[in-house]
Amino acid sequence: MGERHDFLPPDRELEDKDPFNLSLHPHQLTDNYLSLEQKGNDENATYNAYTDGSKMDEETGAAYAVFKEGILIKERKLKLARYCSVYQAEMLAIRECLVFLEKITKPGERATIHTDSQSAIMTIKQRKCKDQMANEIQYLITKINGQSQVNLTWVKGHAESTGNEYADYLAKQSLKLKKENYDKVPRSYLKARVKEQISEEMSTLYTGKINNITKKWLPDLETANKINKADPYIIGNKAIAAFITGHGYFNPHISRIYNQGEPKCDLCDLCADQTSTHILWECPFFSDQRNRIRDQLDYYKQEHNVDLQNNAQNEELLLRAQMSDKKWITIIENIKSIYKYLINKYYRDKQNQQDT
Ligand SMILES: [Zn+2]
Question: How far apart, in whole angstroms, are the C-alpha atoms of residue 155 and residue 145?
């Protein structure tokens, strides 16, 4: 997998966590100043400001409008990069509005910002917040509240609040802007890209040349996940896992990993490598167990009207049979019994070598 920055759009940076390390005085972030309550226009405030974010057809915009005693004194439209979230837009609008209010509020004056984003207020209310923009907003609120007073309250969207409707209108207008005011990549974007990439890589890994034996049993990740979801015991079982991966007490694996013995099967005269496929579908030594497994497969085929030869190509069918009608107990028991024999044989042989 590549480095983290590979997931970012070219020349763009990730929204940092906690750049300020602020220690805010607790009273400055109490409910008196940050409220989820619907309060409406603040009659006692000198300034009532409305903020909004908007996302449409992959364009992201934000805006704020400031009214002084009912008269519009400032409006600003902001454009965000297209990968930015609507949450980032809401937060940007609040931050920029605070930057403006900080410049104009005089000591003793009061300003109230109305946002329709409850999640924005909730994030800003957090004492120890990891969101960069929320930290910047907390910082600005604290700064203004030193001399004047600024409140942040919730306004229900599209509820006939003229101020909110106007901010909404401005935010939609801002979608058309070309110049970006904000282009930090949200962590949600990065997470989604990383997830996408991992799933892609797993898929390539799986269908690639990593393990041909596993691939035969579980042709792709989707099948593997499906079977695992249907019954984790199937893939979680040690014996089944050994057969699926080929990593177990099979001679080719033992000779490769422990540099012991030959890959050839020493239980029959077929001169074949003792792969998990050979053991399960060819080796005469295990014909009893195999017949019982095949009986189960035949049963499955009759039940489901499947026309397939019993051969090594049908391992996948075996797993599907286990999955679909829960008749896999017989099959699992036989695979386990084969595997138990192989384990015991391995330790018996080892003991014999030490004895001689
Ligand atoms: Zn054999």
Answer: 21
**pLDDT band (50, 70, 90) for residue 79:** very high
Q: Tell me, in angstroms, the distance from the centre of ligand 1 to residue 324's CA.
A: 30
List of domains in the chain:
17-183 (3.30.420.10), 210-355 (no CATH)
Which residues partner with 50 through β-bridges? Answer: 65, 114
The single-letter DSSP state of residue 146 is T
- Ligand 1: centre distance to CA 187 (Å): 55
Q: What is the per-residue burial (b if ≥16 Cβ within 10 Å, else e) of 257-285? A: eeeeeeebbebbeeeeebbbbbbbbbbeb
* The two structure tokens encoding residue 63: 């805006």
| pLDDT for res 340 | 92
> Counting beta carbons within 10 angstroms of the beta carbon of residue 109, is it exposed (0 to 12), middle (13 to 18) or buried (19 or more)?
middle
For residue range 104-162, list pLDDT tens digits in order: 999 999 999 999 998 899 888 877 777 788 888 988 998 888 889 999 998 887 767 78
- The answer to whether 242 touches 253, Cβ cutoff 8 Å, is no
Mean pLDDT of 176-189: 85
For residue 259, pLDDT beyond 50: yes
Rounded Cα distance between 216 and 219, Å, is: 6
- Residue 264's alpha-carbon distances to 1, 59, 187, 213, in angstroms, are 37, 63, 53, 17
Average pLDDT over residues 14-36: 59
Helix (H), strand (E) at residue 289: helix 287-304
Neighbours of ion ligand 1 (CB under 5 A): 265, 267-268, 283
